[in-house]
TrEMBL record:
Listed CDD domains: ENDO3c (cd00056)
GO molecular function, one term: 4 iron, 4 sulfur cluster binding
GO biological process: base-excision repair
The keyword 4Fe-4S is annotated on this UniProt entry: yes
Domain HhH-GPD: 37-201
InterPro entries in alphabetical order: DNA_glycosylase (IPR011257), HhH-GPD_domain (IPR003265), HhH_base_excis_C (IPR023170)
Protein name: HhH-GPD family protein
């Protein structure tokens, strides 16, 4: 079978590392909140912030919107950049409340069912219009919270793609997303797993300096060592 390189890398990583079981969250709402909190920070810090919100009985759209923003910021402090993230989170919560037509019981649905009937591209544009929600955050919400076939690009995706000659150094988010989306079947489960595998390999092996190519499952596909 003659697989395109990205499908081959995907299958190789899946065989070597096994399924990732992403996203590590209990509900679509938790994914959406986590997608904002994880900007520029490690997931373990996000977990602490999520735990603090839950311990304060503040883990819903209406409960967080009812909090003074200083209190919200204090609860999410472990995730870093907490004042900025509190403002961004508030913007996302306002968006969710609007989408639920101002009905608090609907807005607090952890499955975000009120977003389920919406067209993916329209929803993506609406998310991108929320201040503080960039393409990676919007696409994380679409893919991991709402199960939409939207490929998520991050710094690890870019690094692996450039080092393996799949993209140029100056490739932007949209170009990288297009490269991976075209190469893989348009399937949320495949996009979910492929992004997760790239994050795992990027975090553990494809380091910024001194990548561990000798122990990496993708090492055999490298023509030149980075
Ligand atoms: S660590 Fe080396 S082999 Fe693995 S993805 Fe990065 S560049 Fe490729």
């Amino acid at each position: 079978m003659n697989l395109n390189p990205i499908r081959l890398y995907y299958q190789t990583l899946l065989d070597a590392l096994g399924p990732s079981g992403w996203w590590p969250a209990q509900s679509a709402f938790e994914v959406a909140v986590g997608a904002v909190l994880t900007q520029n920070t490690a997931w373990r810090n996000v977990e602490k912030a999520l735990a603090a919100l839950k311990a304060a009985d503040a883990f819903s759209v209406s409960a967080m919107l009812a909090l003074p923003i200083e209190d919200l910021a204090e609860l999410i402090r472990p995730s870093g950049y907490y004042r900025l993230k509190a403002a961004r989170l508030r913007n996302l919560l306002d968006f969710l409340a609007r989408e639920a037509a101002g009905d608090p019981s609907l807005a607090d649905d952890p499955a975000l069912s009120y977003l389920s009937g919406q067209d993916t591209q329209e929803l993506r544009e609406k998310l991108l219009a929320v201040r503080g929600v960039g393409p990676e955050t919007a696409d994380c919400i679409l893919l991991y919270a709402l199960d939409r076939p939207v490929f998520v690009v991050d710094a690890y995706t870019a690094r692996v793609a450039v080092r393996h000659g799949l993209a140029s150094e100056d490739a932007g988010y949209d170009e990288l997303q297009d490269i991976f989306s075209r190469a893989l079947p348009e399937d949320a489960a495949v996009y979910n797993e492929c992004h997760a595998l790239l994050v795992r390999v990027g975090h553990a092996l494809c380091k910024k300096s001194r990548p561990l190519c000798d122990t990496c499952p993708l090492g055999t596909f490298l023509e030149t060592r980075p």
